[in-house]
Specification:
The chain is mainly alpha-helical. It has helices at 10-58, 61-70, 75-84, 88-99, 104-115, 117-129, 136-140, 145-152, 157-189, 192-195, 200-209, 216-232, 240-245, 248-281, 305-309. The model is unreliable at 1-41 (pLDDT under 50).
Length: 310
Amino acid sequence: MAEQTIPLGAGGQSAGRADEQGGGHAAGQADEQGGGHAAEKSASAVVRDGLGVGVAVGLSGFAFGVTSAGSGLTVLQTCALSLLVFTGASQFALVGALAGGGNPFTAAAGAFFLGVRNAFYGLRLSQLLALPRAVRPFAAHWVIDETTAVTLAQPTRRSARIGFTVTGISLYVLWNLTTLLGALGAEAIGDTDVWGLDAAGPAVFLALLAPMLRTTRERATAAVAVVLGLGLLPVLPGGVPVLVAALAAPTVLYVEGRKARGSASRARADEGTRTGSALRNAPRTGNARQTGNVPQTGSAPQNDPQRESR
């Protein structure tokens, strides 16, 4: 990160040399004694945050393994999804559509559109992390909601890199391990519908989504998406309602845009009304000459005796 440079005048230069000779040594010693501990504490705090997120979310892989195996996928297919796709919402959307009898292509399309958001995360993280080119393809596989949240919460590039790495490693390892355990457990217990484990996937998905709905716009978008998805579920093939639910975002933005334009038009109309009223009620000036009481200057008197003699 760039340091700020402060221009110094003549007095400032002498003060700067004094600082370098006297106070600079004391500051350097203080940094060596106390600053190192502060940096170390900051790094440990970032590691703790990254591990907390990685462990908490990584355990949800068990629910995905159970849901995927219950929808008809094999253990190998289930583990391949977690290893190669590694984005929980898209994985749950895919296996959920397949479990509902949806077409594999529409199910894959719905999962793809859910995963597109990670590309926008990558645009921001690439500038923040500034990783070497050789590392970027591997780091891109870990660009998901959780790693992005931990990374953006850090104050410096060094702590951001630590947070991204710790969160990515812990979450990737634990998610794939619990996915394997869930898939094996689902095969062992047989029909997951009997145990009610078919609801584990949607429940985990909602648990991951709910904390992200912080603004009114986001809550409205989620509500419209739910209405579209559930309303069209009985009449459209499996997987298609998920694609239609993506129209919730532009719908909410369009409605907000119309409201904003209407508010701006009303504000301009009110301003025009107030301005016109102020002009009508303002006192009129500049009509003093019409009263005839003000003497006119700048013109010669009509009965000038010198002009008559001439």
